[in-house]
Amino acid sequence: MARPPVPDYTRYFNPVLQALRALGGSASIEELNARVGQEMKLSEDVLAVPHDPERGGQSEVAYRIAWARTYLKVGGLIMRASAHRDHRDRSMVITKIGRS
Fold this sequence. Notes:
44% of the residues lie in helices and 10% in strands. It is mainly alpha-helical. The protein has a three-stranded antiparallel beta sheet with strand order 1-3-2.
């Protein structure tokens, strides 16, 4: 069976910002990923595509959303909820720039 097409990471930029706005400005990574999937109306087949089938773990969609978050962080549109880079805190917040 052919692998369903998964959107390129650049296609997640606006949906990530929209999801954070809809979730009140902050969300855990898991909440954010779920909301982005809903916002983009991604099928269950697309959401189920594994990033690395040999290793298991995250989906290709989650992997690409992570890259989108990275670029949005570099651009100053979102940031970690924790100001002190605590890697246990997996929440993201939209910044003033990201709200505009």
